[in-house]
């Protein structure tokens, strides 16, 4: 299931589909992709921290540009959809606001049949929900990047699991600076051991290996370390999972 920045949605058969390579209407672009089975719900998260679900098999084909989610759902005025997720009921996801707060939640808690959605993440005033991040394993690390070019990594086990709420402080952003949008999180991802992290700055991308990520590791709610020169204006981040090991005969 592919979501665009203009809140259009479409679905394609096959997990090898690259959402970034699809064509988009002028002014529209790739926002997020979820891989699952057609019988599962596609769950959408908006910038106000609400979740919505639609049956994946009911979504339009990726052969076209898709259809606007506003035709099927009733988000609050001004809300934008930040991400789409699919998976098993017990899968864990990190929900967070760009004010630096968040928590881990099970996918089953996000499902709702209400067109107006379900409030799951309490987002502080003048802040927005970030795209949801999949938690691949309990040993994984959260990596949060601020608009000031700092990155902090810490154990996902240090983030509480909750069905809903504001969550705990993940990255130390002063409350007033967050309210004034002077400082905020530009992106967050959860990387398993031996995984990698891709940083996106406009059309440029840089992938950091697990070894390179070590220098950014600290404790939850710290301020992190400065990213390399030329990589301090980050738009979003993406976890790269390690290739599954092939079983020996």
List the SSEs and their pairings.
Blueprint: E1 2-4, E2 8-10, E3 30-33, E4 41-46, E5 50-55, E6 67-68, E7 81-85, E8 92-96, E9 101-106, E10 118-119, E11 133-134, E12 141-146, E13 150-155, E14 168-169, H1 175-179, E15 185-191, E16 196-201, E17 204-208, H2 210-213, E18 225-226, E19 236-240
Antiparallel strand pairs: 1-2, 1-3, 2-6, 4-5, 4-7, 5-10, 8-9, 8-11, 9-14, 12-13, 12-15, 13-18, 16-17, 16-19
Main sheet record: 4 strands, antiparallel
What number is the mean pLDDT? Answer: 95
Please bin the fraction of helical residues.
under 10%
Order of helices and strands: EEEEEEEEEEEEEEHEEEHEE
Strand share of the residues? Answer: 25-35%
Number of strands: 19
Distance between the termini: 35 Å
In DSSP terms, counting alpha (H) and pi (I) runs of 4 or more, how many helices?
Answer: 2
Structural class per helix/strand content? mainly beta
Describe the global form. Answer: globular
* Largest sheet: spatial strand order: 3-1-2-6
Radius of gyration in whole Å, from Cα?
17 Å
The low-confidence runs, each spanning 5 or more residues with pLDDT under 50, are none
